[in-house]
Structure formats: structure tokens, C-alpha cells
Amino acid sequence: MNDYARIEKAMAYMVAHAATQPNLETVSAHVHLSAFHFQRLFCRYVGISPKRFLQALTLERGKQLMQSSTSLLDIAHSLGLSGGSRLYDHFVQLEAVTPGEYKRQGEGVEITYGVHETPLGHIFVAITPRGICRMGFVDATSADELLARLAKEWPRSTFHNNPIATRYAVEAIFAKSEASPASLSLHVTGTNFQVAVWRALLTIPEGQWASYTHIAQALGAPNSSRAVGNAVGANPIALWIPCHRVIQQSGALGGYRWGIAKKQMVQAWELAQLDTTTSEAELSL
After folding, report:
1. How far apart are CA 232 and CA 212, in angstroms?
2. Number of domains in the chain
3. Where is the HTH araC/xylS-type domain (predicted)?
């Protein structure tokens, strides 16, 4: 088992056992490491301590849920988000496939793909010359299946396996690098309503949650919560289009294409990263 796999396994264990608040020794034993070695490894790959991650799973998430009634109406017209944390320190621009491109079924388009290790698990990434067109967790669906679905949507495209070319899509999230792009483009295929929902998701601030009802209201269609839920579930680009920030009106997690445990893991990781960035900013003052 490599380091990435150990960290993912440890995070999944903490998600599953958050109610019992497992200590460092318990979690480190689960991944067959000493407490000292595990602590250093976890901090290196996740950017925070195991204790801080566990806190983000429990107390911090509870606080954020209490604030989740904030309406998205004030930011509904925003097309992206610039921020100071790792996840959105870039400007994210979403472009939809035009009707003409859709009719040509990807003819003449070269799609490059690759699979990458991250603290949250293996991630499949595919890009076109215009941006990221697919991103998904491999542990929920195999890379071959994700590629097959993509090929079905773009049957006349040419596909190349080149993880070096797709690496930027995950490094921009998980690693701070001066070489990371200042802006990042997403190239998606969807109905007008789906694209509108995905644009709305980009306006949800990091570490905050919005309900399906909030998004429906922001789109001027307050009775379309179910349709919003279907569009959220069809999100083709995990993490960059943050469907993990959408919960039920009651505060329950709701569904997630990649599984509820993965949704909890992503939310806790994002909260912890946001907290780390805030701490670093305070220290620099």
C-alpha cells in the first residue's frame, strides 16, 4: 500500500467512525503505521493534522450547517469565484459545448486523459483543448467505465492517455505551485438547465453549503428543486464544479454521485484547507 492509499484509507476510516472520535493511535493502527509516522505522513499529504481533519468532520461542519440558510440570490449572476484557498485560488471559467459541436459528436477534437493519486483517492481527468471535460473519483467508478462514458458522448473524438498533460487539473487543487495556471477552463456537455445549475454551483463559497432549494431560487425557478437535484447529480467535473457543497434543506447531506462517505471526506478536507489558509493569513499580518 502506497502513501496516497494509506491517507485515503485513514480519511475514510475517520469519516466512518467520526461519532466515536478515534484517537491518533487507533487511526494509525488501522493503516499499519506508528502514530508518529502516520502524523507526519498525514500532515504532508493533507496539509493538516489528523485531529484537525476529525474536528472538521464534526464541530466545524455543524457550525457551517447552521449557516446554510444564506440565500444564493445575491451571487446568482457570478460566473466564477476567486479566493485565497487552495481550491479556488484560480478563476474558474465554464464553457458549454455549442449545438454545432454537439451535432458533430466531437469530430476533430482530441481528448487527453489520465488517472492521478490524491489524498481523496484516485481521480480520472480528461481534457480537451478548451478545458477540463471530465473529472471523477475512480474508487466509485472504474477509469475504464468513465472513459467509456466519455467516448459515448464524444464518439468521433480521438483519445490519448497522457497523465502528464492532465496533471495540472489536480495539482491546482491539491498542490501550491507557481506553475499552476492563473485561470482554469471547464468544457462541459449538458442541457441549458444543467449548465445553469453548474454555473450556480461555482458561486457557492468554499466551506459553505447551499440547498437544492437555494439553487432553484437563484435560477428564478423556485419549484425546480428536483430538476436541480438531477442536474447536480449529473455534474461531469467533480471538485472543480463543487456539487459536494449542496445539501438538503433539512441540513442532511443528500446524495452524491461518488458516495456519501466521499462527500463527507471532501467537505471536511475543504473546511480544513480553508481553516489552514485563514491561519496562514493571520500569521502573515
Report:
1. 9
2. 3
3. 8-105
What CATH number is given to the structural domain containing 218?
1.10.10.10
Residue 267 CA: distances (Å) to CA of 43, 119, 135, 149, 165: 17, 13, 17, 26, 27
Q: Which of 12, 147, 231, 243 is catalytic?
A: 243
Question: Does residue 243 have an active-site annotation?
Answer: yes
Closest CA to 232 of 251, 254, 217: 254
**47 and 129 fall within a common domain:** no
Domain check: are 17 and 72 in the same one?
yes
Mapped onto helix, strand or coil, the DSSP state of residue 265 is helix
Q: What span, in angstroms and rounded, lies between the C-alpha atoms of 178 and 126?
A: 23
- Positive or negative CA dihedral for 100, 105, 111, 113? positive
Look up the pTM and report it. 0.79
Percentage of residues in the chain having pLDDT higher than 70: 81
Q: Are 50 and 266 in contact (CB under 8 A)?
A: no
Give the whole-angstrom CA distance, residue 265 versus residue 53. Answer: 9
